[in-house]
Predict the structure.
Amino acid sequence: MEEQLESNEMIIHLGPQHPMQPGPFRLNLRLKGETVMGAEIELGFIHKGIEKILENKTYLQGITIVDRICYLVALTNEECFVGCAEKLLGIEPPARAQYIRVILEELTRLQSHLLGMGEFGEFIGFVSMFMYTIREREEILGLIDMVTGARVTHSYLKFGGVRDDLPAGFKEKAIPVLNKLKKAVNDFEEMFHTDRIYRERTVGVGVLTADVAKSLGVSGPALRATGVPFDIRKNEPYLVYKDLDFKVCTETAGDCFARVQVRINEIRESIYILEQCLDQLPGGPLFPEGTPYGRRTPVMRVPAGEVFHRVEDPRGEMGMYMISDGSDKPYRVKVRGPYYPTLQALPPLIIGTTVADVAAISGSMDGCTSEADR
Amino acid sequence: MAIEFPEFIVPFLPWIRGIVGLSLVGAIFLGAMGAVWIERKLSADIQSRMGPCRVGKYGLLQLVADAIKLFTKEDLKPRNADSLLFNNATIFMMSSIFLMLVAIPVGAVFINGVEYPLAVTEMDISVLYIEAMSAITIFGIFMVAYGSNNKYSLLGAFRNFARMVGYEVPLGITVVSVAVMTGSLNIVEISQAQGMLWNIFLQPVGCFVFFVALMADMGRLPFDQNESEEELIAGWITEYCGMRFGLAFFAEYIHMILGSFLVTLLFLGGWNVPAFVSNNPILGLIAPTGFLLIKVVFVLMVIIGMRWAVPRFRIDQVVDLSWKRLFPLALLNLVWAVGLGLYLGA
């Protein structure tokens, strides 16, 4: 990058430690005054070797490892890993377990979107936004904690089902929280739509086009904000999503404003899904009957084979490719996280903008570097 | 207009001025601590948090604890920093702010119906002088930024300059409009002239432009681009630590308090109270100053509250706002003020 440096230009490294970032990565900017002339991303500061670790752990131990890909969305990571193994094993969780999984994954989506919106508010200088969303998120985390016993890394899903049933009184606790969140989301939306400064900072900033997004493999809210109605819950339904009524939220502008708007609408849809699940929750066992799989699964051998399973993570498409050689440990697990492709869309978007917009655009992508590096 | 002092007081006037000045310096530091406390509590209230509540009653001693921490921290200086600029910048900033303070009357006492403004000096061009001193503080910021050999600091200082060039112009023009209408550049006379009707009612547009430009001048959100944490770590102040940071931090808050005084004195009627209050021997001593301070705290709380209620502008939008919106408004207000001055004077 230094070779291209002209006079009046300087290189500034945002990161690996910088308040703007969702995790350590380095963003090298070539600046002319405030204008970004060139941008380069360096990743790998938080590489944990998750995929290699998974090869050395049994399937059951692997669940705790995939939690750590990104603690914020631990349950969808688990769903992806467990889903792969279930495809190989040829089992399907009973209806009640599937509904409970959907409930928890939608709660995960809610808290992830809330945190993302709050962080975005902070990145454009609206620090109070973070406090407002964190306040709502706490109650969602309380609900998750009530079921799984943990706020972040849960290890809740098991092969063929879930570890524990919903505790007594969960529905009664959950409904008021969701109703409160509905009101809060309306407030957020009103705030975003009426605040002049917010609109000036976001409308038309960091416009991602559908073609670029598709060619880079961007998924999730960033892709849906460009007008592409791609949502794995609809396009390739897993669990009981095909029985549930919800719509894929899209916007057409593709700018920061649209990306946040998609998250707001998705929070509403998630609340709707949760209400349906709580109403329709069937009885029955948590694990498929007549199989050895249960809360305390013994040492488990998975038939040899290859499988790909993907789920809709709050940030986009989370997929895992699993190869089994018939032993009790996976032969290879390849993780396809949503944030790595999204991060690749960052340099083309920020070139030509100013330093202030770098924070806004990066924040509106709502990423997790830990998950991009794995 | 010189103030008529009784004969026996005249020899002691320099001493009285000195005592007033020293107590002002002390009071303004206390005031800055109060402003920080108000900021912490108000922001906590806006964000539904508790705010400081452990150190002292209602967290009142939190800032004392902070000061002890800042005093005991190591004084670090980055390698290749320009010592002359880096070491002296805070002294420069503090001095320019205290020079501003000497011309600002912080209240008045009425003794036997005669009014004595509480100011360290009285000069006929005090408004001009205050403006000049306020504009000089910016060089302190650039001294820090250039001296600390840090790119983030430099970017912060660039933004600061771009903003200052934009906002000193409407700020100056609105002050001129007030001066033209009153027919004086003396801030005491401007304040006294608002006995009947506050300037905010005569020049609402001018008050608005002055307030916005003042916010930008002080570097408060939505105009704190020079230290926007999310992009520039801490902007111009990135390399400062310990009491150096503390002084720069205090300078910002003192600037804010003085800005609130300016708004109150120029537009919100200063210390004027009805005649029956000022003629009362006891109330005349405290009521005018108290009334002024209440209004100052109100303005201060508006300035502080703004920070937690709005996002931050981008620097190009700030400059845009200044030249395309505020500058024409300020010019219109000047025309309006001249007309009003002619009408009222006639």
The mean pLDDT of chain A is 87.
